[in-house]
Amino acid sequence: MSTAQASEPPKVDEVEAALAYQDGDAAATIMTLLSDLRHLRLQLALTEGAMSRGMTRGWIPSV
């Protein structure tokens, strides 16, 4: 085994990991992901309201 192979993180199938988190229940997995999406969009909206343009040199967060 070379050092390049030893330092690579193991590859994870994200879809399988998300399904495994909900014990294989696809509907529950989708609901969890949608809930996470709503939370992150709220966080983005709060950040947009609290952040000045000067802080990011003109960049404005958007959905």
Topology:
Elements: H1 3-7, H2 14-21, H3 26-50
Keywords summarizing the entry:
flat; mainly alpha; 63 residues
Write structural notes for this entry:
The protein is mainly alpha-helical and 63 residues long. The protein has a domain at 11-42. It contains three helices and no strands. The protein has helices at 3-7, 14-21, 26-50. The mean pLDDT is 82.
Question: What is this structure, in a nutshell?
Answer:
This protein has 63 residues and is mainly α. The protein has helices at 3-7, 14-21, 26-50.
Biggest β-sheet, characterized? none
Structural class: mainly alpha
Q: Strand portion, in percent?
A: under 5%
State the helicity in percent bands. 55-70%
Tell me the overall shape.
Answer: flat
Which regions have little confidence, pLDDT < 50, spanning 5+ residues?
A: none
Give the helix tally. Answer: 3
Mean pLDDT: 82
Give the strand tally.
0
